[in-house]
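Work Package 3 (structural annotation) set out to generate three-dimensional models for the target panel prioritized at the project kickoff. During this period the team completed the workflow that converts sequence records into discrete structure tokens, so that structures can be stored uniformly alongside our sequence database. As a representative example, we reproduce one entry of 429 residues exactly as it appears in the project archive.
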Amino acid sequence: MSRSIHWTTSAGRVSAASSDAPALPRFRSLPDPCLPADQVGDQGWRLSDLLLPALTLRAGAIEHNVALHAQWCASVGVSQAPHAKTHLSPEIVRLQLDSGAWAMSAATAHQARFLAAVGAPRVLIAHEVVDAANIAALTRLERTHPGTVVMTLVDSLDGVAALEKNLSAAGSTRPLPVLVELGVPGGRTGARNLDTLETLAAAVHASPSLVLAGVEGFEGILPVGRTSEHLRTVDGYLAGLADAAARLDARGFFDEVEEIVLTAGGSVFPDRVAAINVPKLSRAVRVVVRSGATATHDHGPSAEHVPLAAEAANPLGALRPALDLWVAVVSVPEPGLALAAFGKRDAPYDSHPPVVLEVRRDGMAIDAGDVTVERMNDQHGFLAHPDTLRVGDIVRLGPCHPCTAFDKWPLVAVLDDDDHVVGAATTWF
């Protein structure tokens, strides 16, 4: 006879009907997988106690990166709204807010309500929201967190109509601040030219449900590089954002706000955003960058192009890679090939495979030669090596895209520089 299953419980996990059923193991790299996250740093654990594979975060590196990025923003006169989609971690969000972040960026209504719950004073949803359920969620957020200002994007008249209709149906009581988005042909979302953007802004300005708060764009979809051609393309696009703000201001479309928000800037080109020549408008302009990957930096090929990369030799300092994935070699079945116990469930693979940073044998670093991750499947990483790897070796990998690293791990152990586990960063994807 089968027994019933409760699909939800107060603890947010599947359990058997029996009230004395043990908690399901949740945090896969911890020796005690059910330990509350806020007690992880009190156990006296070291890296060697973690079950591999294990994603870890260096406390010194991420604290340095968040402080350095905040210092850089202040030095160039821009505000920061770090994109929380990278990590969706309350611990890291609080670190960024404590560093002086003006707002936090989100990709969805759910991420917005998460950020409001963590304490963000402003949330910039850098995306369009058009369906009834998500718009209703924004209306509920307005009621449950009246002190949090939420802004979202529009790039079409249909999007404006969807917001108006669904805000009204959800009983919204105050106009929703929106930013009109300027895109690029062949790119992602966003109006494709200034004439379309102006028509869109006029519709927002005329709407009783919306208020035009600024202009948004994302230059990160343009080719990455620091050649004159790369920078000319990026600067041309960003100049279009400034032209759009001036054009809409001349029409009086910002008469319901105290300042105009002009925002772009992923992790690669925030310096070009800071260099935008913003004309004098009818009210103050707040330039906001939304860099998300600066908190952990990156091991991928884009990392060398960011303005605070070591290669840039910025006088303020350089970002440090903060994420490591530790894996064990479990098989060396043929010459030149080793299999490590990690895969697509553990590491990003959408941009580039992880970079091999170090190999340890019996706790000591060894000269591993040219070891590379050739490919990954669901549970195996295929390592090419010049006959140096052995079963039991521990390999330290550098993820190449932090935006798809954290989502695979509900808890990331935080290490000090001596490999002691000093805490944990939880994620809420």
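The longest helix spans residues 228-250.
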